[in-house]
Amino acid sequence: SYTELQVTTNFSFLRGGSHPEELVEMAAAYGYKKIAVTDHNTLAGIVRAHVAAKKAGITLIPGCRLDLLDGPSLLAYPKTQAGYSTLSGLLTLGNRRAEKGDCHLYRADVFEHSKDMIFVALAPNTLTTDFALAPEFEAHLRTYKSHLGSQLYLSMTRRYQGDDHKLLFRLATLARDLNIELVATNDVHYHMAERRELQDILTCVREKCTIQTAGLRLHSNAERHLKSIEEMKRLFRLYPEAIENAQKIADACNFSLDMLKYVYPEELTTNGRTPQEELEFLTWQGATEKFGEQIPDKLNDQIIEELAFMKKKELASYFLTVHDFVHFARTRDILCQGRGSAANSVVCYCLGITSVDPTKFKLLFARFMSDARDEPPDIDVDFEHERREEVIQYIYEKYGRDRAAIVATVTQQRHKGAIRDVGKAMGLSVDTLNRLSTSSWHYSGEWLEDDWLAAQGMNPHDPHSRGWALR
């Protein structure tokens, strides 16, 4: 069998031409049992790929392409949960060194963060004028081998530039000399060949050029799509060991995102209490402050029921975490307010997370938490905009920057922004872009109709004009 180990999704910003879900679904249609996702210096795409893989009945291999500042790029695959932790730590190190959007990693960083991982060195795309591999690449590969040993493999990819046979032969010779095993990949950037045009546009947007001037910055052909297992075997029939080693790596990588479980900080408890004991202590303390020494029987019973449910679900640390930064905000007179379904919890009210008085309103705890959910509930807390940074810095100071992070959000470009970016890449004039971006509120089939194109001042019979709408 065979597993594709080099897949770039659209989470490699302006590089991948397909969503992780599309790539996974195509892999399943081809009969793949496993597929890796290796975005550039990020693990951002693996969550959606993991969900799609479970739905499609195949297994995702989480991975990453490490683009180094002082050596050839490496594909990295964690074999175990410890390996995934190591890889995450390595990427965190690179991101903390660089400005937003960059990741600065060096060979020494990889060597120090190599436990429980497999690496594949990416070969150059071309040979020198003497039809040889660049001496610099050979030197780097020797260094990689000396530090990574049997963890290191060497990739083989067909580029269709006229010298594939020579390139693969040189790689096979070098691998034999250095005792490195070969791995076949297709350097996938989109799930089907038709996406090549979109991927070209993404390249133009990234490089700030037009499709007419992009030149060699574009891929030279449309072969960077996911291929069937049979086609990959045919393409590397002279190097069957490269196909076998791809499956060998896939079989060695047994880590799954399902293994991950949130580990809460230990700083949440005081006086030697367990998290559940701390939660109960703070809850009853808050209940006494809000309702007096004589807590109404109905609320008393509700608190006992909620605390028992939280103990059953092992959620004490989660509620203590939220209470921690809400308590900090209130002690500093920073306006904050819990909202949403959390307002249905008497415990949240006693902890000061929400402000809905259960003596005045009927609360429905089932709307907040139930046995049907295996993950912690959502507790949304708003902080006043001008002082939100104080709360963020408190969290960093208490838990350390190596244990706290701001969660990234993924945004989707709307049609007006997409029109302008695609139009610029296609070389359209500014006045045309302005007219097109204000002519419609959303993408529709009319963009391909002759009358609509003509109304925008474009020639409906010009393939260039129609191609803009298709992209």
Task: Give a structural overview.
This protein is 44% helix and 8% strand. The chain has a five-stranded mixed beta sheet. A two-stranded parallel ribbon has the order 1-2. The chain has a two-stranded antiparallel ribbon with strand order 8-9. Helix 2 links the parallel strand 1 and strand 2. The chain is of the alpha/beta class. It has 19 helices and nine strands. The chain folds into three domains: 20-259, Alpha-Beta Barrel (TIM Barrel); 276-399, no CATH class; 415-470. The longest helix is centred in the first third of the chain and has 17 residues, at 81-97.
Strand runs, count:
9
Query: Within the largest sheet, what's the order of strands?
Result: 3-4-5-6-7
CATH homology-level superfamily of the largest domain: Metal-dependent hydrolases
Tell me the Rg in angstroms: 28 Å
Structural class: alpha/beta
Q: What's the tally of helices? A: 19
The residue-averaged pLDDT reads 90
Could you tell me the CATH topology label of the largest domain: TIM Barrel
Task: Spell out the key features of this protein.
single chain, 471 residues, alpha/beta, TIM Barrel, 3 domains, five-stranded mixed beta sheet, two-stranded parallel ribbon, 9 strands, globular
List the helices and strands and how they pair.
Blueprint: H1 20-29, E1 34-37, H2 46-56, E2 59-62, E3 64-66, E4 74-78, H3 81-97, H4 107-112, E5 117-121, H5 135-148, E6 152-156, H6 164-178, E7 181-184, H7 196-207, H8 229-235, H9 240-252, H10 275-291, H11 297-312, H12 316-331, E8 336-339, H13 346-350, H14 365-368, E9 380-383, H15 388-399, H16 415-426, H17 430-437, H18 450-455, H19 463-470
Parallel strand pairs: 1-2, 5-6, 6-7
Antiparallel strand pairs: 3-4, 4-5, 8-9
Helix pairs in contact: 1-2, 7-16, 10-11, 10-12, 16-17
